[in-house]
Design a protein that fits this description.
This protein is of the alpha/beta class. It is built from 16 helices and 15 strands. The strands form 3 sheets. It has an 8-stranded mixed beta sheet, sandwiched between helices. It has a 5-stranded parallel beta sheet with strand order 12-11-13-14-15. It has a two-stranded antiparallel ribbon with strand order 5-6. Helix 15 (399-404) links the parallel strand 14 (389-392) and strand 15. Helix 8 (196-227) crosses helix 10. The structure holds ligand SAJ.
Amino acid sequence: MKTICVIGLGYIGLPTATVLADSGHMVIGVDVNEKAVELINQGKIHITEPYLAEKVAAAVRDGRLRAQTVPAVADAFILAVPTPFTGGKKADLSYVKSAAKSLLPYLRKGSLVILESTVPPRTTCDVLVPLLAQSGFKIGRDVLVAFCPERVLPGNILKELVTNSRVVGGINEASAAAARELYATFVKGEIYETDATTAEMTKLMENTYRDVNIALANEFAKIAEYAGVNIWEAIRFANKHPRVNIHQPGPGVGGHCIAVDPWFIVEKAGGRAELIEKARQINDGMPRYVVESMKKILAGVAKPKVALLGLTYKPNVDDCRESPSLKIAEILKQEGFTVAAYDPFVKTKGAASLSEALYEADLAVLLVNHDDFNFLNPEKIGPLMRQRLVFDTRNALRHQDWEAAGFKVFVLGAGQNLEWDVKNQDGTAYFAR
Ligand code: SAJ
C-alpha cells in the first residue's frame, strides 16, 4: 500500500485515482477546481463516465480517496492535467509546469513522479526533469521520473484502465522499474518498460495512426461520392482482407486526443510530418464538406431549417470538445441557415427535445450515432418536418424505414445522390439502388 497523489481530477485523473484506491492505495486527488474537489469529497462526480460515480462514492466512503486543492507528501505523484493547444497548434504545457511546481515542496527522497498527460516528444526530459530538479534532489536517483501515457477510451475508461497494456517510460531504468511496480498493482495487461521519449512518441503515434486512417476513410468517402460507389459497402468488403482495417468516414474527428495529438508530432518534426499534417487538414475539412453536401441537398429551398442530431464528439458520451457537430452548426449559421440541434447527452446546448429540433425542419442530419438514435421513428418524425429529407453522415439509420416513411435519404460517402447527379448530365444511372 502506497500513498499516491493524483494531480488533475479530470477524465483520466479521477478514474485513475479510484482504480488506485480500489487496489488498496491511499489516494489524495488534487485539482484546482474547488467545486470538483468539494463534489468528490461528497462522493459525487463532475464528469460523466460509466461506473465512475459508484467507484468514487465507494472510495471516498472507505476513506481511500480524498480530494484537495493542493498536493501532499506522497510516495508517488501522478500528473494527469490537460495539455490543450496554444494558438498555432502547439502544445500548451502550462498546466504540466504548474502541476510540477506545485508538488516540489512535497517531494521526498524516494518519491516517484509520473507524467500521464499527452505531451510532445522530449517534454519529460527537457521540461519536467529540469523543473523537478529545482527541489534540490538528484533527479533519477533521489526522485524517480517516468512518462506513462494513458490509452483508455472515453466511455470504457474503468475497464480499459485495468485491462489495457501499458508502456512505462523512465528517464532511467530505475524510474521505469518503479513505475512498472506501481502500475502492476492494478493493471492486468502487459507492462512494457522503455525510455520516456519512446513512451511519449508511442502515445502520439497511436492517436496519429487513427487520425490518418480516418482521414483516408474520409478521402475514400469523397471519391466514392464522385464515382457512384457506396463507401460503407466498399470499406466493409475491403476490411474482409486479413491485413486491411480501414476506419469509418464521418463528419470529422473530435475529442481532446485524436484531433489534437498529431499536432504535437508536427510541432517537433521539423517539417517531416507531411502525411500527418495533411490528414489533420482532411479531417478538419469534413465539417465544411458536410455543410457543402447539405447545401446541395437543399438547393432551391428558401430559408432552410436544418435539424442536427448529435452534438458530442462521439456516440454515447456527453463530451463536446472539438466536436465536428459544433463546427457544422457554426458554419451553417454563418451561411444563413436556421439551425436547431438535439443531443440526448447534452442538455445545456441545443433544443430541449427532439421534436422541438425537428419541428418544421427541411433536413434532418444525423451527426452522432448515439444508441438512443436507433429508436428514431421516421413515421413520427415525418409529419413534424417541412420536408422529408434526411442526411446520414454515419450510415447508422435504417434507410429503408425512412424511405418507407416518405423520406429521401442521403448518406455521406454513398454516391447515389450528391456529386454523381451533378456530374452526370446524360441522365444515366450509374447503378440502381
Ligand atoms: N472517428 C471517425 N471514424 C472512426 C473512428 C473515430 O470518424 O472510424 C471519430 C469519432 O467520431 C470521434 C473521433 O474520431 O469524433 C475520436 O474518437 P475515438 O473513439 O476514435 O477516440 P477518442 O478520442 O475517444 O480516444 C482516443 C483513443 N485512441 C485510440 O483509439 C488510438 C483512446 O484509446 C485514447 O486513450 C484517447 O484517444 C486518448 O486519451 O488519447
